[in-house]
């Protein structure tokens, strides 16, 4: 029996709900929420959900008294109490009557899944969406979890209050200070209206707020008008708001000020992204070689050089043959507070005579050729489970993302030029130059970022070279030299105590 229903519950008492292929129900607060898995047991031939696990994962301030079989917590603004053996659920001062009692099973409180969803729909989440075939429950499909941002200026600093519709955990939030007067905040599992939340201020510490929806991550880029000495954040337990405190500089010695500013400019962390991976092989050569294997080998060789010779902290988006969605790659880079992001790929063209290298930076003005190349690299999206997140990246969001990254445009272009220069010098290859393109893998990276195509896997000569380990080592060395030259240039005037 296959049931699929939405917003309709009139048959609940007559038709049971069946889940397919999984002992779990994935529950999301909103469409973009990554979700949590709630256990579902087969009892009397029908699915019964662990309401105790549901309350512990989804509820606010949950408390489970296992000895007495009672759990309490808030769903939305309602205080709810569920007791094992009772058919009544108190909701604030109102009493909801179930057709039968909640049962105790193993260490859980359970009830028929159909009755629990009926309760949620009628009492708490009137717009919920349920799909029994995909084992998915979305409590508020049309809602944004980031609702507004309020700024309050004080003499000694400013407070940003990010108003949310649900409770986030501290591990969902990452805040770091970039260069050139930018502060970044990423919130995993959050969604927001990027146009509404884009703000400008004529006075105070903040100049602009640029929001970007990057798949399952919501990023806020804060352009600062004044220097800040420190920042922190906490989650307000009463309102669920994310509160960020920005502090103006206190009186520091000259040496302390120099040391503090120097740390921001040191290029000490690099994020290396081996293109494709797992079920996405990338382009294929005539001999069956896969792009994903070549790029991973080059990236691992490059990482070893950077760690050994420059002492850099190297972060990899993947170190093995695994599939990583595009939007998660820049998320990894941002969370690591990377100072450079490099994505390594192999090129391909229907004209097999075309050869050589080319390196790309992200920009809104694209040539027809760059659009074709970006389309090919972005095709990996078809292999991702949640493809809708890319459909929601509108032209406006793309422009906003490019604006937020424009502060790194000059550095990105310089790094790309150094890469091509060293390819030509060391590999004696044909450089097709530095170009602009709209690669999703670069979108949202809050640091200098490039995507480099090391050769054409569709060209016989390039493919023969790419197949040789010695040549892949030379590519890694060329990239290493470009990174070292870039690092030396930008660090040469930084005073180090």
Main attributes of the structure:
497 residues, alpha+beta, Copper Amine Oxidase, Chain A, domain 1, Immunoglobulin-like, Aminopeptidase, 3 domains, 8-stranded mixed sheet, 6-stranded mixed sheet, disordered N terminus
Enumerate how many helices there are, as a single number. Answer: 12
N-to-C span:
71 Å
Tally of structural domains: 3
- For this structure, the CATH topology of the largest domain is Aminopeptidase
Give the CATH level 1 class of the largest domain.
Alpha Beta
> Major sheet, described briefly?
8 strands, mixed
Uncertain residue segments: 1-19, 365-378, 380-404
- Overall strand count: 28
CATH homologous superfamily caption of the largest domain: Zn-dependent exopeptidases
- Average pLDDT: 82
Strand content: 25-35%
Describe this structure in words.
The chain has 497 residues and is of the alpha+beta class. The protein folds into three domains: 5-138, Copper amine oxidase-like, N-terminal domain (Copper Amine Oxidase, Chain A, domain 1, 2-Layer Sandwich), CATH 3.30.457; 146-251, Immunoglobulin-like (Sandwich); 265-491, Zn-dependent exopeptidases (Aminopeptidase, 3-Layer(aba) Sandwich). It is built from twelve helices and 28 strands. The strands form six sheets. An eight-stranded mixed sheet has the order 1-12-13-2-3-4-11-10. Helix 10 (409-427) crosses helix 12. The model is unreliable at 1-19, 365-378 and 380-404 (pLDDT under 50).
């Amino acid at each position: 029996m296959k049931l699929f229903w939405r917003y309709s519950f009139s048959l609940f008492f007559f038709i049971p709900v069946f889940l397919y292929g999984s002992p779990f129900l994935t529950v999301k607060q909103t469409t973009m929420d990554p979700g949590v898995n709630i256990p579902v047991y087969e009892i009397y031939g029908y699915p019964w959900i662990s309401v105790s696990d549901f309350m512990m994962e989804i509820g606010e301030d949950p408390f489970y008294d296992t000895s007495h079989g009672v759990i309490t917590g808030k769903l939305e603004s309602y205080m709810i109490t569920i007791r094992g053996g009772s058919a009544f659920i108190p909701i604030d001062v109102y009493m909801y009557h179930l057709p039968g009692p909640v049962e105790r099973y193993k260490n859980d409180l359970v009830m028929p899944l159909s009755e629990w969803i009926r309760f949620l729909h009628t009492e708490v989440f009137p717009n919920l969406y349920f799909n029994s075939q995909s084992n998915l429950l979305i409590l508020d499909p049309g809602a944004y979890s980031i609702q507004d941002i309020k700024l309050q200026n004080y003499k000694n600093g400013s407070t940003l209050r990010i108003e949310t519709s649900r409770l986030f955990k501290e591990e969902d939030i990452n805040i770091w200070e970039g260069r050139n007067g930018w502060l970044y905040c990423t919130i995993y599992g959050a969604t927001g209206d990027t146009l509404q939340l884009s703000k400008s201020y004529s006075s105070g510490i903040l100049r602009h707020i640029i929001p970007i929806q990057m798949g399952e991550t919501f990023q806020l880029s804060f352009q600062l008008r004044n220097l800040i000495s420190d920042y922190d954040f906490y989650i307000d337990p009463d309102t669920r708001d994310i509160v960020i405190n920005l502090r103006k500089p206190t009186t520091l010695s000259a040496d302390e000020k120099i040391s503090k500013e120097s740390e921001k400019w040191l290029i000490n962390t690099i994020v290396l992204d081996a293109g494709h991976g797992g079920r996405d092989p990338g382009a294929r050569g005539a001999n069956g070689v896969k792009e994903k294997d070549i790029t991973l080998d080059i990236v691992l060789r490059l990482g070893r050089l950077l760690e050994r010779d420059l002492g850099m902290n190297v972060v990899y988006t993947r170190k093995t043959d695994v599939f990583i969605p595009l939007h998660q790659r820049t998320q990894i880079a941002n969370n690591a507070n990377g100072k450079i992001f490099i994505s390594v790929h192999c090129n391909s063209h229907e004209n097999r005579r075309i050869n050589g290298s080319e390196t790309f930076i992200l920009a809104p003005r694209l040539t027809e050729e760059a659009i074709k190349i970006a389309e090919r690299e972005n095709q990996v999206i078809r292999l991702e489970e949640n493809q809708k997140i890319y459909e929601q990246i509108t032209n406006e969001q793309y422009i906003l993302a490019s604006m937020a990254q424009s502060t790194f445009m000059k550095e990105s272009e310089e790094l790309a030029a150094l890469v091509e220069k060293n390819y030509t010098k060391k590999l004696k290859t044909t450089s097709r130059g530095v170009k602009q393109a709209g690669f999703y893998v670069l979108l949202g990276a809050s640091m200098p970022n490039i995507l480099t195509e090391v050769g054409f896997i569709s060209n016989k000569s390039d493919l023969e070279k790419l197949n040789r380990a010695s040549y892949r080592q030379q590519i890694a060395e060329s990239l290493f030299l470009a990174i070292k030259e870039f690092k030396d240039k930008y660090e040469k005037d930084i005073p180090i105590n």
